[in-house]
Amino acid sequence: MRTAPVRDRLLDAADEVLFMDGSVSTPVDVILRRAGASPPSLYSHFGNKEGLVTAALQRRLRVWTGVWDDQISRATTDRGRLLALWPALRVYQRDHLTERWCAFSGTAAAIPNPSEQLTAVLAEETQLLRDRLLEHSRPIAGRRARQLASALFVAYTGTMATMLREEYHAAIDEGEASAKALVAHYATEQR
């Protein structure tokens, strides 16, 4: 059996240890043990633990964006495209990179003074959420699209936080129900 390259093993171990099983503050030696890697391999590939966290989040963002893109493309209505965030979250959790809650929020909470690179990936994820929600809110809410997009952003981040307290299926269902109620409210106001 062929062993995965050390860089991939470190990224996989970071995902498991930092975002699925534990927290971003988990010591680097735990990640190294899980990856079957040495400290020099981590430092040669990523510079330090924060570099590894940044690379793991960049990978998550690429995967997440692809899953969300796919769900948007499957939607046949403006409302479906706007609400595609929740079906995308189900697919992402089930088929790709399961997490206890939002890896990006967890990282932002655990690292109060992030590097420029880590700050950039955290901001990129936030901007992706805000931009897409606004884009897909416009056909439904018109002049109130910013308010709808903001409310849906809060519903989504609430969904992610609820995943810490309940099974992710239930958290996503609750978040989606809230999002649908918000969309119905703003769509009614447009008429």
List the helices and strands and how they pair.
Blueprint: H1 6-21, H2 28-35, H3 39-46, H4 49-74, H5 78-83, H6 85-95, H7 103-110, H8 116-141, H9 145-162, H10 168-190
Helix pairs in contact: 1-2, 1-4, 3-4, 4-6, 4-8, 6-10, 8-9, 9-10
Characterize the structure shown.
There is one protein chain. The longest helix is centred in the N-terminal third of the chain and has 26 residues, at 49-74. With 191 residues, the protein is an all-alpha fold. The chain is elongated and about 60 Å long. The chain has 10 helices and no strands. The model has no long low-confidence stretch (mean pLDDT 92). The chain has helices at residues 6-21, 28-35, 39-46, 49-74, 78-83, 85-95, 103-110, 116-141, 145-162, 168-190. It has one domain (57-190): Tetracycline Repressor, domain 2 (Orthogonal Bundle), CATH 1.10.357.
